[in-house]
Amino acid sequence: PKIVTLPGDGIGPEVTAAAVAVLREVAPDVTIEEHLIGGVAYDTHGDPFPQVTRDALGDADAVLLGTVGGAQDSAWNLLPRHLRPESGLLALRKALGCYANLRPVRVQPGLEHLSPLKAELARGVDILIVRELLGGVYFDGDRKIDGDTAYNTMRYTTPEVERVARVAFWAAEQRKGRVTSVDKANVLEVSELWRRDVTALRDREYRGVHLNHEYVDSVAMLIVSDPSRYDVIVTENLFGDILSDLAAVIPGSLGLMPSASLGDGAGLFEPIHGSAPDIAGKGVANPAAAIMSAGMLLRHGLKRPEGANQIDRAVALALREHPTRDLGGRADTQTFTRAVLSALE
Amino acid sequence: PKIVTLPGDGIGPEVTAAAVAVLREVAPDVTIEEHLIGGVAYDTHGDPFPQVTRDALGDADAVLLGTVGGAQDSAWNLLPRHLRPESGLLALRKALGCYANLRPVRVQPGLEHLSPLKAELARGVDILIVRELLGGVYFDGDRKIDGDTAYNTMRYTTPEVERVARVAFWAAEQRKGRVTSVDKANVLEVSELWRRDVTALRDREYRGVHLNHEYVDSVAMLIVSDPSRYDVIVTENLFGDILSDLAAVIPGSLGLMPSASLGDGAGLFEPIHGSAPDIAGKGVANPAAAIMSAGMLLRHGLKRPEGANQIDRAVALALREHPTRDLGGRADTQTFTRAVLSALE
Ligand SMILES: CC(C)[C@H](C(=O)O)[C@@H](O)C(=O)O
Ligand SMILES: CC(C)[C@H](C(=O)O)[C@@H](O)C(=O)O
Fold this sequence. Notes:
2 copies of one chain form a homodimer. Chain A is α/β, with parallel strands linked by helices. Chain A folds into 2 domains: about 1-95 and about 265-345, Isopropylmalate Dehydrogenase; about 105-255, Isopropylmalate Dehydrogenase, CATH 3.40.718.10. In chain A, about 40% of the residues lie in helices and about 20% in strands. Chain A is built from 12 helices and 12 strands. Chain A has helices at about 10-25, 40-45, 50-55, 85-95, 120, 160-175, 190-205, 215-225, 235-245, 290-300, 305-320, 335-345; strands at about 1-10, 30-35, 60-65, 100-105, 125-130, 145, 150-155, 180-185, 210-215, 230-235, 260-265, 265-270. In chain A, helix 1 (about 10-25) links the parallel strand 1 (about 1-10) and strand 2. In chain A, helix 8 packs parallel to helix 9 (about 235-245). One 3-isopropylmalic acid (IPM) sits at the interface of chains B and A. One 3-isopropylmalic acid sits at the interface of chains B and A. Chains A, B: Pfam families: Iso_dh. Chains A, B: It catalyses: (2R,3S)-3-isopropylmalate + NAD(+) = 4-methyl-2-oxopentanoate + CO2 + NADH. Chains A, B: Belongs to the isocitrate and isopropylmalate dehydrogenases family. LeuB type 1 subfamily. Chains A, B: One of its GO terms (biological process) is L-leucine biosynthetic process. Chains A, B: Homodimer.
C-alpha cells in the first residue's frame, strides 16, 4: 500500500517524522511518499495545495497529515484567503471527499492524572466525536467581506446530513449503541433540518441505536463536567471543530487527540492540534496525537486493526513513563518516540 | 424605579421569586411589575412576547428575566418557529436593544471545591465574557428551511462590531486591561471583519488596552484548562453562547452564572441556565444565578453598586453553608434563599 505524508507547517514535520518512524516499524511493507501542503507549499509553489500534491493522492491508500498554518501574526495570514495555509487543508479535505471526521476522546487507565478534571470525572472516558467535515459554514460558496459588512452561510442538505449520520450510527453499533446529535435547533433552521434528517435516518435504518438531541451550548458544558454521559456525538462542521478541541481537555492535552477523516476515497489522518509555531523546530512537541493518527490510519485506512492496537498500547505505555512537556513531563519528541518504538511488541 | 419581571417557563418562576425576595430586601423602594414571556405567554396570549408585555417595558428601568422554553420533546417545539418560547426571548432582546451581554465567570474564594476542575486551576478565576447579542446567525433575516436544504447566515456590520467591542474595552479598563477577541478568522470572512474592526477600534480609541485574537476552537479548550489567562473575552453571538455555557464549568454549575444585557435602553438581567423542565416545580432549583442577576441589575441597571456588592457577598456566604443540589449539596430553593436573605448585612 502507498501512503502520502504531508508534514506541513510548524511542528507538523517533527510529529509526522515520529509517526512515520512508528509506521515503518509496524507496517514495514508500506510505501511512503512525502509532499507539501500549507504554508510551506505556498512558499515553494505559490499554492497551499499544489497540483503536484494533488496528483500524488490519486493512487494513495491513505494520507497522513501533520499540521498547517502559522502564528496569528504570520505573513501567511496577510495573503488572500485562498492562498493561506488553512485553505490548503480545506481544499485537501474536499479533494479527498472526507466528509466524516472521527475524533476519539479516550482517557487511558492510569493516565487520569494528566487531566485538569478531577480524576473521578476523567476516569474511563471513551467518546467518539463524529464531525461533518465538508459542509456548513466552512464550505458554502455564499460568503463575502465587502466594506463594512461580511457574511458566511451555514448550509446543509439532506444527503450531506445523512452520509455523516450513517457513520455515527455505524460506529455506535460497534460501541455502546448511543448517539447524541448536537445542534442549535432552538435558533437555527439549518439545525432543524439536521435534527429532522438524523432522526428520520435512525427511524428508518438504525432502530437499534439510541438517539438523543442536545443543544451545542449545553453539550459544551456537559462534555467537560459529565463526560461519561456520551458515547458517540455527531454534529456539523463548526460545532464539531469547537467541541472536539474542547474535548481535548478531558485527556489533558490536544497532544493526545488523533483523528481520521473518512469518505469517498483515501482517508485522511491527522492530529487535531495546531502548528504550535512557538515551539516549532525545538524538538519538544508531543507526537502522541500524530502517532495515534498513524494508528487510526492502520485501523481505518489499511484495515489492519492489530497494528493499530499495537500502536495504541505502546503510546499508553510511553505516556505513563515519559510524559511530554504539554503533560507536565520532561520527555522531548525524540525520547517519547523512542519510548513508543521500544514499547511496540 | 420600576422593574419588570418576566419569570417565564420551567424553573423560571421559582428562581425569579427568590431573586425578587432578595431585591425587595436590598432595594425596598423599587416597584416590581410581573409579566409573561415564553411558553406561558404563548399559552395565554398565543404569542411568546405578547403586546401587553412589550407595552410594560416602555417605562421600565430594568428587566429581570427567569428562563424560557420546554423540554426537547415539548409541544412548544412543534409550533412554527416564531411562536416558540425562545423566539419570545430573542424578540425581547431585540426590543430592548440589548447588544452587549455580560457574563462574568468568577470563582469565589473558598468555593474552588465546587468546580470539576482541579482546585488550583479554578482558584481566583475572574473572567468577563462579553457576548454580542443582537447579530450574527441568530438574527439575520436570510434563513430558510425548504425541502432538503436549509441555511442560516452569519452576518455582521462594522457598527455592530464596534458597539459591543466598546463595551469590552470599557470593561477591561475597569479590570486588568486585557481583551481577548474570539473568532474563526482562519475560515470565516465574517470573522475577518470582526477582527479588523475590533483591532481598528482599539488602535483608534483604546490604546491602553492590551488586545489579542484567538480562534474559538482554541479558546474552548484553553478557557477550561487554563482559565486564568483570560480577563475580558469579546465575541460574536453564537460563539459567545457556546463559550459562556462552557465557562460555567469553571465555578461548577450553570446555577452560578448570572448575566446582564446592556444596550440602548433598559437592561435585561437573566441567569444563563435554561428552564430545567425536569426539576421545575419541585422547589430544588439553585436560584443563585437569578439572585446574582438581580445584583447585576442593581449595579448596571440602577447604578447601585453597594446593593450589588451586598448581594454578591451574601450569595457567596450562602453557597459555602448551604450548597444546592447542582453543587452536590442538599439545600432547596427556599433554604438557599433564606440563607441569602439572612446573610445580607
Ligand atoms: C485549521 C482549521 C481550518 C481547522 C478547522 O477548523 O477545521 C482546525 O481547527 C481543525 O479542527 O482541524
Ligand atoms: C434559549 C436560547 C435562545 C439562548 C441563546 O442561545 O441565546 C440561551 O441559550 C442563552 O444563552 O441565553
